[in-house]
Amino acid sequence: MPAMQIPSDHPLLLQIVDDLSANGWSQQNIFLPVDLTQALAAECRKRAAEGELAPAAVGRGSSSEIREGIRGDQIQWIEPGQDEACDSYLQLMDSLRQAINRHLYLGLEDFESHFAMYPPGAFYLKHLDRFHDDDRRVVSAVVYLNEGWLPAHGGQLRMYLDETAKFDVEPIGGCLVVFLSGEVPHEVLPATRERLSLTGWFRRRGNEPF
Ligand code: OGA
Ligand code: MN
Questions:
Q1: Residue 187: which of 36, 72, 37 has the closest Cα?
Q2: Range of the domain at 127
Q3: pLDDT for residue 63
Q4: pLDDT tens column, 133-152
Q5: CATH number (domain holding residue 133)
Q6: Is 142 in the pocket of ligand 1 (CB under 6 A)?
Q7: How many domains does the chain fold into?
Q8: Cα of 54 to ligand 2 centre, how many Å?
Q9: Closest ligand to the CA of 113
């Protein structure tokens, strides 16, 4: 997997920046190259098979707990230097971080992300990605790793854009969706098959939470 060098003034990144500033969210159906999507899906499945994914918790710090009635996905945080495909993904996301900072002055300093695997039937109820005691998450970014996904499989990301408007994103391999973490409530609908993604958050500097 070659390194993913993409300049931060690439038209695709500028489109995302424009969407974010106009609407607070953006969807790019063709974001990850096919070979990178496949390599990331294989890495996620390998980690799952090796037992490295664990039930995701709700909340953070001492108040975090596993609650399958709220979210049923299994996750593993990724770190640089573990895997070539993950590093390519991290490079792409860093180019996006720079593009957002250059144009929107959000002061995004870092990016945290995890693999997520939703077994059939699993869901994540409506929520915001920002914690009450930690507002460092500014922009959420999800890339999907599912080959051959059909609407009938379910598993849509449902975003609540205002009081009346909602918008469903199909979790199709290679697709990226980004949105403002503190402003767009969203949920993951249950699917009939396993659903794989990489979910991440661009964060600004903040005081360490209590
Ligand atoms: C999350 C989340 C959305 C998705 O992990 O916080 O909302 O489509 N994920 O996987
Ligand atoms: Mn979320």
A1: 72
A2: 22-58+69-204
A3: 72
A4: 778 999 999 999 999 999 99
A5: 2.60.120.620
A6: yes
A7: 1
A8: 17
A9: 1
